[in-house]
Amino acid sequence: MNTERIVDRLVRFRQRPFIRVLHRTLITLFPLIVVGAFARIGYENLFSGNGFLGSILHVTDWLPFRQFLRAVFSDVQRVTVGWSAPFAAMVSAMITTRIKRQENILAGITAAAAYVLIFVHGIRGNSQVIEMRYYSVTWLIIGIIVGYLVGRYFAKYGQQVNFFEHGSTHEDVMAAVLKNMRPVLVVFIVAFILHIGYASYRQFNLDGMVSQWLDSLIDRNSNYFLNILLSLINTVLVWLGFAEPLTITSQAYSNEVYANLTYALTHKTSWHIPYPFTPSSLYTGFAVFGGVGLSLALVIGILWAARSKRKRTIAKISIVPSFFNLWAPILFGAQVFLNPAFLLPFVILPIFNILVGSFLIFIHAIPPMVYPVPNGTPGILIPFISTGGNWVALLITIVLLIIDIILYIPFIKLAERVDERSVTDREEESTDEKAK
Questions:
Q1: 230 contacts: CB under 8 Å, gap ≥ 6
Q2: 108 near 184, Cβ under 8 Å?
Q3: 78: helix, coil or strand?
Q4: What is the full DSSP assignment across 339-404?
Q5: The whole model's pTM is what?
Q6: Do 151 and 97 contact (CB within 8 A), yes or no?
Q7: How far apart are CA 216 and CA 203, in angstroms?
Q8: For 413-423, what is each residue's pLDDT tens digit?
């Protein structure tokens, strides 16, 4: 299959209605995600005594009001990245109605409220508590899907509402709002039914049963091929816009992690730890330079090879968060989610890094990674710190990053060609419509 045919197929995929809505939603939310990423660097990294920057600067010794600063930065992160899923529902619904030429602000508001309603439920008690993981960027694709479906429904059964249309009066707006009461009620009824299902799921401890089933399935004992499989599943699901499984992997096999650390501290060496290939050490050590999908390599590759000034600007904005393993800005800005042009490097390169790193551990070129690292430690420094300061591990990390950047570049150029072709096709369609 030649390159032109690949580009043609990617352009056709990109022109699908849901993909258009998805990518426009990502770009719309990009500024919000950037603000949230820098806020997270503040509360988790800089103002935290356990953070990478906080440890280097010894902020606990001299910075006044540190806990207050950490709390306010956490608040900023919570209302940006932490609420990105309902924001995505709102934006995707509004964009969907706009694409269908039935622009409707009420669709966006209804979609956001419906998404929040679905997942609001008290946690095993009488108090109403919002579990934030359902509203953060990890559930982004669910928010976009909800918004897209609501937007489609409003475009078909609702009345166009544009509060800023020239010449419209308050009476016109009120009449349009009243005509949208039926779709609003239908959406909320569906959301309420889903809410009952979710509430039952939690109230009867079904989520706990699922967790126990996963624990028994994994059996708390890892093996090398399971490590590779978990890394592959995590990365694919993030590419699909669903990052929740990453939290599962980070908590899995904690018994092995503790056994390794105990051995290293007792024997003053990590060369012969009982579990040298744990998922957490291999994945965090070699597969997340800059975040999931080796986001730092993607950022540097865009700065190096991209022709688009806008893409380079996005990469410049994203480079600091990516350096501290915050992947969301570049994945939003470069529209990586559900973008086939980036699928292969996004999924395969982390596995390649894990294979290389584990081989070097196997032949004793570098020691296993066992020591904990501060929160927010840059991905390229994790192997160096977690091996107890092994310089060969740092050198290997730099070499792997360079290889990752070089291998990303052809796909970055492919994505640019798809972007350029999509713009050209859209301009031609617009010209034809005007001619008619």
A1: 249, 252, 279, 283
A2: no
A3: helix
A4: -HHHHHHHHHHHHHHHHHHHHHHHTTSSPPP-S---BT--GGGHHHHHTTS-HHHHHHHHHHHHHH
A5: 0.88
A6: yes
A7: 22
A8: 999 999 888 77
